Amino acid sequence: MQAGFAGPPGHNLASASPPWALMGRMVPADRIALSSEQKQMLITSAAARLSGLDTAAFDAQLQELLLLLPDIRSRLLSLKPAILVELCSDTRGVAYKLVQLREMFPDANVSVIIAKRPTLLTAAEWPGVEVAHRKLGTMFPEGGLGQMVTQQPLLLVEDVDEVVGELERLMPGSGRSGRGLLRSNPDLLLAVVEAVAGSVAGGGREVAGSSRAAAAEAEPEAAILLAASRLAGGYGGVTHRSTPHPPIAFRISSPPLRPLPPPPLPGDSIALLLLWESLSRHIPTSREWLLPGVDVRIMLLRNPGVLTQYRLERKVGEGTYGVVYRATEVATGQTVAVK
User: Fold this and answer.
1) Which residues does UniProt call coiled coil (predicted)?
2) Residue 279 to residues 269, 282, 283: CA-CA distances in angstroms?
């Protein structure tokens, strides 16, 4: 081998294929491990190109935005470049909107609200914020709106009247109004919206910029209602009524059983009560499946069909394959162990 070998005649090193192509291996982009800093640089670079600015000029705008919204830094990796460009290109307008939000909700953490829902400041959603503020003020005259919208910014996006109506329809005998339920736990809005979206054929709606699976993982109460929605669409004999907004509750072709009274529940189990109201009219069950020690949320998410096959009685152990429960098989009456 000769030192300084430059390749065959006519070979141009400047136009040579990259080494991984020469070796015959192509590495998929999703398998390249990048640090968070590298990912942020890629997103910033893409946004800069979209804005028509060079990277240095766009980075200066981005730093101005981060001064106004320090909590949004954790969301940079999930923001679409187009949204980032819109926010960075008008930091003076962003500042003005933040002042307006502070005036609307004096007791709110405005930075956290925008970190959870950056699109509130975009031209697509901002016009509805003032409308939502007036509606919420009428619905909850006792105040405390700042804490509510800080916990769940979707209150400024979704039609709260429809959500309250859906909560009341699901729980006619709960003794609590839909307004009261939403007041005690604003995240029920996400649960209802996600469950209704999941009941639509194809269910392709996104909420708060995340998929239904991600929303369920982030909010267990939403996961319960999502599981109920999937249960409604996943078993024979189940049909939805034809309405413009398909309800979460469902009916089975066979005659329904007599409704059971809701079981005693801890104060923070409102979503579980919603699920009970939806299912207890149609599924052979008893209060036993809600005995202490039985984590119904985990059981339901792992195997929604268990509610139609077994009456859960109590937790009996935990081993290599998960938590084991004692149950009675509905079809045969036999005592079995399920996990």
Assistant:
1) none
2) 16, 6, 6
For residue 22, pLDDT over 60 is answered with no
Run of H or E residues at 252: strand 251-252
Considering only 72-76, 155-159, 267-271, which range has the smallest mean pLDDT?
267-271
Closest by alpha carbon to 153, among 139, 138, 133, 123? Answer: 133
Q: For residues 8 and 176, what is the distance between their CA atoms, to the nearest angstrom?
A: 83
Which of the residue ranges 13-22, 84-93, 328-337 would you say has the lowest mean pLDDT?
A: 13-22
CA separation for the pair 109, 106 (Å, rounded) = 8
112 CB-contact burial (10 Å; exposed 0-12 / middle 13-18 / buried 19+): middle
| Binding annotation for ATP | 339
Q: Measured between alpha carbons, how far is 54 from 61 in angstroms, rounded to an integer?
A: 11
pLDDT in tens, 75-104: 877 788 899 999 999 999 999 999 999 999
Mapping DSSP to helix (H, G, I), strand (E, B) and coil, where does residue 10 land? Answer: coil
Has residue 285 got a pLDDT over 50?
no
Cα separation, 106 vs 89, in Å, equals 27
Among left, alpha and beta (phi > 0; psi -120 to 50; other), residue 203 is left
CA distance 84 to 43: 9
Q: Which two tokens stand for residue 262?
A: 């809701």
**Beta carbons of 275 and 221 less than 8 angstroms apart:** no
CA angle (264, 270, 274) in 5-degree steps: 90
> What are residue 314's phi and psi, to 5 degrees?
-165, 160
- Helix residue ranges per DSSP H, the chain: 19-22, 36-51, 55-68, 81-88, 91-104, 110-116, 126-139, 145-151, 160-170, 178-184, 188-199, 212-218, 220-233, 270-279, 296-302, 306-309
Residue with tokens 């800080």, as numbered in its chain? 150
**Does residue 138 carry a pLDDT above 80?**
yes
Average confidence (pLDDT) over 161-190: 79
Question: Hunting for tokens 């649960």 — which residue is that?
Answer: 191
pLDDT per position as a tens digit, 241-257: 333 333 333 322 333 33
| pLDDT, position 271 | 47
